[in-house]
Amino acid sequence: MTYHPADNRYDRMTYRRTGRSGLMLPAISLGLWHNFGHDTPHDTKRAICHAAFDHGITHFDLANNYGPPAGSAESAFGDILKTDFKDLRDELIISSKAGYHMWNGPYGEWGSRKYLIASCDQSLKRMGLDYVDIFYSHRFDPDTPLEETMGALDHIVRSGRAQYVGLSSYNSEKTREAVAILKSLGTPCLIHQPSYNILNRWVEKDGLRETLADLGVGSIAFTPLAQGILTRKYLSGIPEGSRASQGKSLDPAVITPRAIESVRALDAMATSRGQTLAQMALAWVLRGGMITTALIGASKPEQVVDCAGAIKNLDFTDAELAQIDQISSEEDVNLWARSSESV
Ligand SMILES: NC(=O)c1ccc[n+]([C@@H]2O[C@H](COP(=O)([O-])OP(=O)(O)OC[C@H]3O[C@@H](n4cnc5c(N)ncnc54)[C@H](OP(=O)(O)O)[C@@H]3O)[C@@H](O)[C@H]2O)c1
Question: Is the pLDDT of residue 6 over 60?
Answer without folding.
Answer: yes
